[in-house]
């Protein structure tokens, strides 16, 4: 049910769906970063493995936490949320594609990538791009 303003009786619009999706993705990245900091969840020496599957490092943890904070901050407006989804989705998709290429050892030590991590980065990146682009293409209907 929409809230109404007392003076004009006009319903206030609620948050846009893209804002909710941005918040959901931001909280997901924050939880992922928090799991990476827990000693029992991340196993292994050097580049550890989250749940024994995803290769993680300190740089990945920082990237996930910064992405989560940025997503939560950008949910203040629909325009910011869609821009975040587009830019963040492009970054994660590029990281996933970079994981498929033969990169220098220095990059692999900072951002270790295994098959599961590549699939996760490509999946998150693609989903974020679709959500951000879908909202940008939506135009409000003009009434005559």
In short:
This protein has 144 residues and is mainly alpha-helical. The chain has five helices and three strands. The protein has helices at 17-37, 58-74, 78-100, 105-110, 115-137; strands at 42-43, 48-50, 54-56.
Task: Kindly state the percentage of residues in helix.
Answer: 55-70%
Q: Give the mean pLDDT.
A: 85
The poorly predicted ranges are none
What's the N-to-C terminus distance?
A: 26 Å
Biggest β-sheet description:
3 strands, antiparallel
Q: State the shape.
A: elongated
**Secondary-structure element sequence?**
HEEEHHHH
How many domains, in number, for the residues? 1
| Strand order, sheet with most strands | 1-2-3
User: Count the strands?
Assistant: 3
């Amino acid at each position: 049910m929409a809230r109404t303003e007392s003076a004009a009786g006009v319903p206030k619009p609620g948050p846009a769906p893209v804002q909710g999706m941005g918040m959901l993705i931001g909280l997901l990245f924050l939880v992922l970063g928090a799991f990476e900091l827990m000693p029992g969840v991340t196993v292994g020496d050097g580049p550890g493995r989250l749940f024994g599957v995803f290769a993680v490092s300190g740089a990945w943890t920082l990237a996930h936490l910064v992405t989560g904070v940025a997503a939560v901050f950008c949910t203040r407006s629909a325009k910011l949320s869609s821009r975040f989804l587009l830019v963040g989705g492009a970054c994660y998709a590029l990281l996933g594609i970079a994981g498929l290429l033969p990169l220098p050892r220095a990059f692999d030590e900072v951002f270790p990538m295994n098959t599961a991590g590549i699939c996760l980065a490509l999946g998150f990146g693609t989903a974020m791009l679709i959500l951000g682009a879908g909202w940008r293409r939506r135009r409000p209907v003009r009434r005559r």
